[in-house]
Specification:
Elements (H helix, E strand, L loop, with lengths): L1 H34 L5 H8 L6 H11 L8 H8 L3 E6 L2 E7 L5 H17 L1 H13 L2 H22 L9
Antiparallel strand pairs: 1-2
Helix pairs in contact: 2-3, 3-5, 5-6, 5-7, 6-7
C-alpha cells in the first residue's frame, strides 16, 4: 500500500514539475520577444556586450534599474544593489560585517550570478578575481567582481557605448 501511494505522489510531483517548466519556458519566450521591441532593444544590445550578461539578465537589469541616471554615483548604485559593506558602529568602534542586508535582492542575485560567468569570459575580471581570491574566500571575491561588473554596466548605460574587452 505504501508503494502505491508513494508512486502516486511521485507522479503528481513530476507532472507539477513539467507544468512549471512549461510556464517558465513560456515566460522566457515572452521576455525574449519583449527584448526585441523598440523600448528595450538598444539597451539589451548594449548590456549584452558586457561579459556575463545574457538577454534575460539584461532585461532583468533594465527593469530593476529603470533609469541609470537616477543614481548620481557608483556608490549609490552599489548601495541600491546591496554590494556595500554592512558596518556596525558604536562610539569609536566600527565593525564590518560582510555585505549589507539592505538591497534589491533580484538585482544583487543577478549581478553575482553574472559575475561567476564573467570571470570565466573576461581576462581582466579573471585576473582581479584571482587576486582577490588570494586573500579572501572565493564567495567574497565574487562580490568584489560583481561591483566591478556593475561599474561596467553603469558605464555602458550612461555613455551608450558597448563594452570593449580589456587586453591583458
Amino acid at each position: 500500500m505504501e508503494k502505491a501511494s508513494g508512486d502516486l505522489a511521485l507522479k503528481a510531483h513530476i507532472e507539477e514539475l513539467k507544468n512549471i517548466r512549461q510556464i517558465i519556458a513560456g515566460l522566457n519566450k515572452a521576455i525574449l520577444s519583449l527584448s526585441r521591441t523598440e523600448a528595450y532593444r538598444d539597451n539589451v544590445l548594449l548590456l549584452r556586450s558586457v561579459p556575463g550578461i545574457s538577454t534575460l539578465t539584461a532585461m532583468t537589469l533594465i527593469t530593476e534599474l529603470y533609469d541609470i541616471f537616477r543614481f548620481s554615483s557608483l556608490d549609490k548604485l552599489a548601495s541600491y544593489a546591496g554590494l556595500v559593506p554592512d558596518i556596525k558602529s558604536s562610539g569609536e568602534t566600527e565593525h564590518t560585517r560582510g555585505i549589507t542586508y539592505r538591497r534589491n535582492a533580484t538585482l544583487r542575485t543577478v549581478l553575482i550570478e553574472s559575475s561567476w560567468v564573467a570571470v570565466r569570459k573576461d581576462p581582466a575580471l579573471m585576473m582581479a578575481f584571482n587576486k582577490f581570491s588570494l586573500r579572501m574566500k572565493k564567495t567574497k571575491a565574487i562580490v568584489h567582481i560583481a561591483r566591478k561588473l556593475l561599474n561596467r554596466i553603469r558605464f555602458v548605460l550612461k555613455n551608450r557605448q558597448q563594452d570593449v574587452p580589456a587586453v591583458v
